[in-house]
Amino acid sequence: MSDGDLKTVFNSFCAFGAGSKDAQATMDNAKFGKLFRDLKLYDKKFTSTDTDIIFNRPEVKSKTERKINFSQFKKALELCAEKKYGSKDDVGKFIEKICAGKGPATSGATKAVKAGGVDRLTDTSKYTGSHKERFDESGKGKGIEGRVDRDDKAAEGYVGGYKGKDTYDKTH
């Protein structure tokens, strides 16, 4: 539980979501909250609202700053420990939990699909309703037969119940 371990966790959350050229050793409020959320440090006594308030306190950063550096992060951890455990001296418990945790979690993120685009689009098991009729079992499209319902009764007249089939030529 050295300062280096804490710095490693701090840097991993700072770099989360940033491109390789955008990675900096500063943390914004969203990543500060993500650290506590991902490491499951919140409870009924210590909530995300508390971390938002602590992040913006004048002891941590000035009003014009949007991000905090590592020394400001350690000061914020002291204030968080005071809120959660009742004493700034218990910051060691916080640091121990943070260093024992892993880096930023990506749970709930969309997973990349390895199948080709055409394979997914023509998989009839995923289709419902009339769309599943457009492809055969092999995934090959049926063409016009898959898109149009052919009804022999509809060819007999203009509307349902039409009785005068083939009578036009006879009367004219």
From TrEMBL:
Domain of life, source organism: Eukaryota
InterPro entries: EF-hand-dom_pair, TPP/p25
Compositionally skewed regions (Basic and acidic residues) per UniProt: 130-155, 163-172
Region (Disordered): 123-172
Gene3D superfamilies: EF-hand (1.10.238.10)
SUPFAM superfamilies for the chain: EF-hand (SSF47473)
Family indicated by similarity: Belongs to the TPPP family.
Protein name stated in the entry: Tubulin polymerization-promoting protein family member 2
Source organism per UniProt: Porites lobata
